[in-house]
């Protein structure tokens, strides 16, 4: 790996074209790793090495001060976390968040992307542009604006509901509703993002296939079901994977500004809870154990099944390979 | 691991240097950093702080102060990160719940270990003893109370009138408060009461004042045993539960509480006097805001707690320690508290300046909302931080249990508090 | 990837199916639904802008439009915060991070799409799992690393941890996999090197993926908060999200100036979106390959 820079340099376009000699076998085997090197190095330095440190420290009590001793406490840090009365509540809330986010952040954008694709270009761009707008708003501001709109007393949405004869709905503070309010806002922010990704993938579909099918008398729905959806499935898989792995983090800003995890813990999720307990004081034991719990717990419990499915899906879609 | 090893050698040498006594005055140009959360707000607090720093620099031409804006909830993490990186900040504005943790674990410098007793004595002269007590951990002053406020009951005089209540006679006890709240609920559409007692970011400062006022306490005097589930604590929570279960008190995040009050939708709001400026702006042309003292429990003296922050120094270099101390002295001088009180809205910890025409007299006459707050100063029971490395987790868990006991479905307040106390006691050092 | 045979399979079903709804009906319903969704997406943003123009004592008003339009909030935000400087800083960071992340993403994506190699599955999984590591977990060790490099309070430190992103790699690997293999084989026959294939053949044809990806990377970097908060010291070296946060304090939030500052912080992104969106459309139109 020591010759990495020169190797990458050699394979740059202008120069590479002049090289006609075939590469030796060893170089070939190394090549994929060289292409991966910059990205992998970044992740090792900034993510995995610190995560490994956190793992080692999660069995200790220490205040991070170099001069003070690191007490070995075994699994105490983990026990403290698992004993939190809110832990299991937060875990099940996390599931509800994911359950609510998938239709909002994957289902709805899919429908929008498919529908707008067939519209005249002007209208299509207008809709996609409007739907993208929430994406540009800073999350904190989005949370604040939504709380105004949803306020049970003077929020404009409740004023509207009252005009329609309904009694005011306590969107931000009713323990039974608040979680869905936050899911909605998180999804609202993501619709544009997912639509953009899906539209790009949808537009990349070979139009000649669709034309051929249309000439054969296929309806719009049939083209979607039999051509577009199968071709979009890897991108859909990527989005679902992303929502599952990142969903809890995305709702963080909204939980923080709107409810702080309350009322009565009804909106806290595993990420927010561990953040509250682990990082408020930078207590190494708590924060490291929180980190590992999050990574291993959520990673194994939620992520792996999907990851395996996604990898499988991606593998079966592989289309070109030389050697 | 390597990062930590290298940091440790730096910090080790730095700690050893800190054992020396500090020079009498600053003789060479020196620059110190100052983490301040008022600077991190875009409001009057930042301007006033910049002004004080500029005045200080003009008086001490050899000292340059680099004021760094850091949001209040992030200062502790910043201070820790810097110490671990071997570049400790010189002066930081630390909120009281974190003071014990930093003093006991992060090598904050006790003033007694740096400054000659006579000089300390001279500076402490005239400061509220309760306020000085706040910075003391195990008998030594690690912090100097700086921006500081007590809880007051804000109320909306217009809603009071609408509910047939007399705004000149605000409730003084929790039972009077309940009566007033019922009147508001009956005759108006407004929320009768919000309090800053609950909500994760509030931590326990206002709860501590409420428990103390009910004759109870969060923990015993030597900070070893939690006592919040004692009968007095249960009584205090049951009073709150009664208000909550009758829908007289709302359970909201702090932002929602403040906006509800500022927009004229809440009748009464128990919260730190520090938010007064914000509420007054919201009330302008909308409603008449008033303040009253924190309500008492029947038969017990009211013992308000305090929110706010102290100044702590973490300098390890003697010259910087001297410069830091000079800055701390200036910020807590008569002039310093004059600016803090009149331009940011905190309390003057040197009460004599309130009637001194050279300092606050004119301003105090023009700003009557401050009065209830000043009167509470002598009754105040200083905030005491929970001990040990798990202090924050204990506070959050305790507040969670109390929120559940107040707003939840289970009527067994005593049982919920006891089981929480038993569980949390295991995390005490 | 779909061959003719696969395409022909469902044809018999297509011919038999009769139309259930009158022509254009689904389109009309769709249009109405799209309008509702668009309204929900845009209204809160409209609210942000309207609020930023309200005078101070009308901030909590729920009127749809205020007659008294005031620029005070903008003047205040610009006066108390070096907003312009912060915007320039944020812009610089985002402008560097975006192409760098695209570059590492293209290289890594190509490796995953083009070659079978030992550990490919493991590496792909490890990259996807970085999503599970929240910033707070790695913040302190990374802070120490930056401190050792002497880069605290510098824009460089805001860029370095964002050299690569899992999302860019996975999306690009995905896009490259669906690139027609016949074209690549043809190029191989002509003796093109990997670099040639990647940069002259694949990348120009991936513009439809690269442009939206660039938009998303830019916005993510633009909205970053925690890492800059720990690293920057002076407002002059700070980014715009830190500036926004300064209007939200324990002593109350200054909604008017916050909304004004947010509007100012959002406008550049809207412009970037419009420019790049045009690029996306253009690339769809003239892509000869598809």
TrEMBL record, chain A:
Q: Where in the cell is it found?
A: Cell membrane
| SUPFAM superfamilies referenced in this protein's UniProt entry, alphabetically | MetI-like
Q: What biological processes does GO assign it?
A: transmembrane transport
Against PROSITE patterns, the record matches this protein to: ABC_TM1 (PS50928)
In this chain the ABC transmembrane type-1 domain maps to 91-307
**Its principal location?**
membrane
| Annotated TM spans | 33-52, 95-115, 127-149, 177-198, 229-250, 270-287, 294-314
Please tell me whether the keyword Transmembrane helix is annotated for this protein: yes
Signal peptide boundaries? none
How is the protein disposed in the membrane?
A: Multi-pass membrane protein
Q: Which UniProt keywords apply?
A: Cell membrane, Membrane, Transmembrane, Transmembrane helix, Transport
Name a single GO cellular component. plasma membrane
**Which family does this protein fall into?**
Belongs to the binding-protein-dependent transport system permease family.
Report the PANTHER family cross-referenced here.
Answer: ABC TRANSPORTER PERMEASE PROTEIN, INNER MEMBRANE ABC TRANSPORTER PERMEASE PROTEIN YCJO
Q: What is this protein called?
A: ABC transmembrane type-1 domain-containing protein
Q: Could you tell me which species this protein originates from?
A: Pseudodonghicola xiamenensis
Q: What is the lineage of its organism?
A: Bacteria, Pseudomonadati, Pseudomonadota, Alphaproteobacteria, Rhodobacterales
TrEMBL record, chain B:
**Cellular compartments per GO CC:** periplasmic space
Cross-referenced InterPro entries, in alphabetical order? Answer: Bact_solute-bd_prot1, SBP
The answer to whether keyword Signal applies is yes
CDD domains in the record, alphabetically? PBP2_UgpB
Ordered alphabetically, the record's keywords are: Signal
Please give the chief subcellular localization of this protein: periplasm
The keyword Signal is assigned to this record: yes
The lineage's top-level taxon is Bacteria
Where can this protein be found? Periplasm
One Pfam annotation, family name?
SBP_bac_8
Q: Which residues constitute the signal peptide according to the record?
A: 1-19
Protein family membership: Belongs to the bacterial solute-binding protein 1 family.
Q: What is this protein called?
A: ABC transporter substrate-binding protein
Q: Which organism is it from?
A: Pseudodonghicola xiamenensis
TrEMBL record, chain C:
- Where does the UniProt annotation locate this protein? Cell membrane
Q: Does the keyword Transmembrane apply?
A: yes
A single Gene Ontology biological process assigned to it is: transmembrane transport
- Specify whether Transmembrane is a keyword of the entry: yes
Q: Which UniProt keywords apply?
A: Cell membrane, Membrane, Transmembrane, Transmembrane helix, Transport
Which CDD domains does the entry link to? TM_PBP2
Provide the membrane topology annotation.
Multi-pass membrane protein
Q: Which GO terms describe its cellular component?
A: plasma membrane
Matching entries from Pfam families are given as: BPD_transp_1 (PF00528)
User: Membrane-crossing residues?
Assistant: 25-49, 91-113, 120-143, 155-176, 197-222, 255-276
InterPro entries in the record: MetI-like, MetI-like_sf
Record-annotated ABC transmembrane type-1 domain positions: 87-276
Q: Which family does it belong to?
A: Belongs to the binding-protein-dependent transport system permease family.
Name of protein: ABC transporter permease
